[in-house]
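Let us work through a complete example step by step.
Step 1: write down the sequence.
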Amino acid sequence: MIPDKSIGSFSKGIWFVHKDGEQIIHVWGSFFTGKEKIFLNSKLVSEQRSLKMTSGHVFKSENGAVYEVEFSIQSLLKGSPKCVIKKENVILKTYRARFQVWKFFTLKRTLTILGIAIALGVLKGIFKFSELIIAIFIGAFLMFYLFSANSALVIEEDSPAIGN
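Step 2: predict the structure and record it as tokens.
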């Protein structure tokens, strides 16, 4: 389902939505797979998988206008994607997404991590689990932790200054 506004989550990917007159551009990207999809008026016009720091899509509208969408990752550590939408080489909109760390590490979530770490230590002592089994448990928990932090993503929009 294509959203009406820009939204994003770590688990479901990120949507940037831009309206250019009668044209509505929906840009979607996945944090996990590197898959990128561009929709123009709800029709898929470009799709690719990219694991690079920067990628681009070029497509035309029905009236012949040339659009370009550029994806880039500003920081691997922060995972902050940037999306620039251009029409005829003029920037229409720049989107930036960032994670809010304070929403990511709440007291409840931190206490849950601490409880699970203690439980894993006790279980390792009782059942003599190997380090591999503990690593698998920790990896599975971290994936769950990341998937459950959906509200920690903020999308900011920058419009170019008039006359530039």
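Step 3: interpret the result. The chain has two domains: 7-100+152-158, 102-147.
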